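Records of this kind hold a single protein each, on a pair of labelled lines. Below, a sample record shows both lines together.
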Amino acid sequence: MTWKSYAAVSGAGLLATYLFSTPPVVVPGGGPATPPAADNARLPDDIEEQAARLGARVRSEIEYQPPSRNLFRFGGRTVAPSSPAPPPAASPDTTVPEIAPPPPPPPPVRLTGIATSTVNGERRRSAILLTPEGIVSAREGDMAGAYRVTRIEEDAVEVVGPDGTPRRLVVRP
């Protein structure tokens, strides 16, 4: 195909596209369009009657109706809420086991590390504790906040609280 024939075919295609794709021209001042005779038989004669019929349909659909099914549950069974069962009555011959008291709350002191130093050939350990007042380095017998350090081991420290309860603190990674 030569360039001349390519230009002629392309030009003819563009012209045909232009002619068949343009909208029809509407002449202003023309008479009203009349629908075909077949469509006239289906159109209602009274517009007000049609509007009243549509308005009645809308009013009946406005009333709320609960949904007939739950899309988020399979089966759709409804279970009536049951009242909790009353506790069984204790007979006089049964004994009620005593409930153990809860463990004491953890102390507000945490062991963050243990330091070892050698003084005159003797090894001394110091516990590095995190207290509400800040970081404290304490040896055996020293106070760390409200707690007294009683023993320092390789990986743990024993402290006694203000109430006299001994507690063991372990270094946590």
Summary: Helices lie at 3-21, 37-40, 47-62. DSSP finds three helices and seven strands in the chain. The first helix runs from residue 3 to 21. The radius of gyration is 47 Å.
